[in-house]
Amino acid sequence: MKIIPLWFIRYKFFNSLFLGLSVGAIFTLYAPLEPSIYSMGGVLLAMGMLIVARFYHTILNAEWFFRISLFVEGVLLLAMLYFLYASYNYQTALLLYIGYQITFVFGNYLIRAETLLLNTDILLTKLDTVKQIGYLLGMGLAYLFYKTLTHYGIDDNQTQVYDLHFLLIAVELVVIVLIIKSFKRV
After folding, report:
1. Which of 54, 75, 141, 183 has the fewest Cβ atoms surrounding its Cβ within 10 A?
2. CATH of the domain at 160
3. DSSP assignment of the chain
4. Structural domain total, the chain
5. Cα–chain-centroid distance for residue 179?
């Protein structure tokens, strides 16, 4: 497989837009969890990252990068769909936390792989620029989204975060399409 930089940069923009939109929602989503869960989650995250790092010799290539990227985005999509389906409770918060932690296990790998696969300073500059623009735009849109809901009398945090997930799922679907367009078989 080979990365198509133009599509990959678009993918990373929408991926960062998603992150910016979702960053504030985490505090509401995880509210039912006790602090010890975060400690255990951090330990398991670090162990998972160590395991992934041990496989770099096999997975630092475009084929695995595509597979793992698609897997990570699929986990996020499933977690969000589950959240919309299930009620707000401890189990939902825990499953969402686990889902996000699974995606974080691959964080270092994904950054290293994209750096190796887009190995020119021009592409990396474009990539990091669109990532920051997407992140900032996402945070700004989330702010406006929450303020708009409050203006219309929807001021409950849980309801606001629930409603935001419809937008997050739409962005996530764009992210998945762009991942697929970002790679081609050679």
Report:
1. 54
2. 1.20.1250
3. -EE-HHHHHHHHHHHHHHHHHHTTHHHHHTTTS-HHHHHHHHHHHHHHHHHHHHTHHHH-SHHHHHHHHHHHHHHHHHHHHHHHHS-SSHHHHHHHHHHHHHHHHTHHHHHHHHHHHT-SHHHHHHHHHHHHHHHHHHHHHHHHHHHHHHHTT---HHHHHHHHHHHHHHHHHHHHHHHHHTEE--
4. 1
5. 13
The pTM of the full predicted model, rounded to 2 decimals, is 0.93
Question: By the 8 A CB rule, do 23 and 100 touch?
Answer: no
* CA-to-CA separations, 137 to 13, 21, 80, 144, 182, in angstroms, rounded: 10, 8, 21, 10, 22
pLDDT bin (cut points 50, 70, 90) of residue 186 is confident
The pLDDT-based confidence of 114 (bands split at 50, 70, 90) is very high
Its domain, for residue 75, covers: 2-184
